[in-house]
């Protein structure tokens, strides 16, 4: 066989396998559902809990660098991951291996896929714990526990939650059980229903909070803090955090968007959908910043207070505003659901991998990984109480997991993905798979993928290691 015919035969076999997979794996019922699911994955604790606190810790030009990372690295990579999933029609490991085979490259590239799945799994173990905090705040807010609370008292209430391992374990376990139940029943059915009301509802509540913060808080100071860059405060470490957070918030570098892409029907515009997902995600994060920082400044709180920031700040607002008990309770319910839709996407790559690679049932995969996740989550729970003093390089188990996965493993997974796509796959195959009609746009994306994105990620790593 000539090269061309073998390529054609390979492509044909690939296409046939894809059609069979489509029939057995099922697809999103429409591109609207895919948009909802991808947005559900992207919008979560990262936007409402993490974005404000890392911004508070890094200050200065952090928001600007973060937005640049979203635009120049996040969106192109999001498109790439969805494309690999749709073309490979399998879990991330299988999808990458299949595309590598089609391109005549080593199937070792599948490491990009399974490393992503592992990263997602590790993230999920601490994500559950933070979602558990939000869950604990639902009854606390509805019951009026925060009425008229001061900044200091609110800090004490949050401290009391962290000091109570039993409450933390119960809440994290409930979140884990809900996640695994939905994943067990199949992602597509359960997700679609919950997302339809969640996204608009969350958006409206965020707006209510921003309006409240604008009236009652130090809005001008917050605007200045968020949007007037102070480059003197920018360090190599904060650039890494901005990059890592761009990955975290768009669910990149850990297989989630690949696996969601693998259920995407042909014919949907990957570029348009990815841009819309990134826009919605960024909008929610900025709204969270605009809701929280005016209150932080008005109540004399410390912007760099760390992971507890929203759990200390928002109850002050809920304790003072009219109908705050109800608005606050609803807000924390929405936060839990937003976290759930992200948690589902964090677990789906490894569940799909277990069922497709080892041919075990979905139930077994869910129970097995649920148990391991639960054990791992105990490490994060105890980081705030029993094990608070056991630290590695000044970081607890929770901090270490967060730092390693978000700032190193996710960008590393992203780097592998762009190198694989830009340098291993054939341009023609990629062009067909991504389906961008305008040649100019395709080339802009392609070159960003081949040169811009990998160079940027490597520069950030080298800079942090003190090598440049
Ligand atoms: N993007 C989610 C958030 O911002 O909360 C977190 C996340 C979900 C990260 C899925 C990674 C992932 F694969």
Question: Can you walk through the features of this model?
Answer:
With 468 residues, the chain is mainly α. It has one domain (27-464): Amino acid/polyamine transporter I (Up-down Bundle), CATH 1.20.1740. It has helices at 3-25, 31-42, 45-58, 62-88, 92-102, 111-142, 151-162, 165-184, 187-216, 219-227, 236-249, 256-261, 270-298, 309-320, 324-358, 362-382, 397-424, 427-434, 439-464. Helix 4 crosses helix 11 and helix 9 packs antiparallel against helix 15. Residues 1-23 have low confidence and may be disordered. 4-fluoro-L-phenylalanine binds at residues 41-42, 44-47, 120, 123, 248-249, 251, 254, 256, 342, 345-346.
Topology, pairings included?
Elements: H1 3-25, H2 31-42, H3 45-58, H4 62-88, H5 92-102, H6 111-142, H7 151-162, H8 165-184, H9 187-216, H10 219-227, H11 236-249, H12 256-261, H13 270-298, H14 309-320, H15 324-358, H16 362-382, H17 397-424, H18 427-434, H19 439-464
Helix pairs in contact: 2-9, 2-13, 2-15, 3-11, 3-13, 4-5, 4-11, 4-13, 4-17, 4-19, 5-6, 6-8, 6-14, 6-15, 6-16, 6-17, 7-14, 8-15, 8-16, 9-13, 9-15, 10-13, 11-17, 11-19, 14-15, 15-16, 16-17, 17-19
């Amino acid at each position: 066989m000539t090269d061309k015919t073998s390529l054609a035969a390979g492509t044909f076999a690939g296409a046939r396998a894809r059609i069979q997979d489509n029939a057995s794996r099922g697809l999103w019922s429409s591109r609207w559902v895919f948009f909802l699911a991808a947005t559900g994955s992207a919008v979560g604790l990262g936007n409402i809990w993490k974005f404000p606190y890392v911004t508070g810790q890094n200050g200065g030009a952090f928001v600007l660098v973060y937005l640049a990372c979203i635009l120049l690295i996040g969106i192109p990579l999001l498109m790439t991951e969805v494309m690999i999933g749709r073309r490979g029609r399998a879990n991330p490991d299988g999808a990458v291996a299949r595309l590598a085979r089609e391109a005549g490259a080593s199937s070792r590239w599948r490491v990009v896929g399974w490393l992503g799945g592992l990263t997602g799994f590790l993230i999920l173990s601490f994500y559950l714990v933070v979602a558990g905090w939000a869950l604990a705040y639902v009854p606390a807010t509805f019951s009026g526990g925060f009425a008229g609370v001061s900044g200091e008292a609110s800090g004490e209430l949050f401290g009391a939650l962290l000091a109570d391992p039993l409450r933390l374990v119960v809440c994290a376990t409930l979140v884990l059980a809900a996640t695994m139940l939905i994943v067990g029943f199949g992602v597509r059915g359960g997700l679609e229903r919950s997302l339809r009301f969640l996204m608009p509802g969350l958006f409206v509540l965020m707006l209510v909070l921003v309006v409240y913060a604008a009236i009652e808080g130090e809005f001008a100071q917050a605007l200045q803090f968020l949007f007037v860059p102070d480059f003197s405060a920018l360090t190599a470490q904060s650039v890494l955090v901005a990059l890592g957070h761009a990955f975290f918030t768009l669910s990149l570098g850990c297989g989630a968007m690949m696996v969601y892409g693998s259920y995407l029907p042909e014919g949907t515009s990957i570029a348009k959908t990815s841009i819309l997902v990134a826009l919605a995600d960024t909008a929610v994060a900025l709204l969270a910043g605009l809701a929280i920082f005016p209150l932080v400044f008005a109540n004399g709180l410390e912007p760099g207070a760390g992971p507890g920031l929203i759990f200390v700040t928002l109850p002050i607002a809920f304790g003072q505003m009219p109908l705050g008990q109800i608005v606050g309770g609803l807000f924390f319910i929405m936060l839990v659901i937003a976290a759930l839709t992200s948690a589902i996407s964090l677990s789906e790559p490894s569940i799909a991998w277990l069922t497709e690679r080892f041919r075990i049932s979905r139930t077994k995969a869910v129970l097995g990984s649920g148990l391991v996740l639960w054990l791992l989550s105990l490490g994060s729970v105890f980081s705030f109480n029993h094990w608070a003093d056991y630290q590695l390089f000044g970081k607890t188990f929770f901090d270490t997991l967060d730092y390693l996965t978000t700032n190193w493993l996710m960008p590393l997974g992203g780097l592998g993905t762009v190198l694989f796509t830009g340098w291993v796959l054939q341009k023609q195959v990629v062009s067909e798979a991504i389906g961008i009609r305008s040649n100019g746009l395709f080339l802009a994306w392609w070159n960003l993928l081949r040169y811009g994105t990998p160079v940027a990620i490597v520069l950030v790593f080298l800079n942090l290691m003190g090598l440049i």
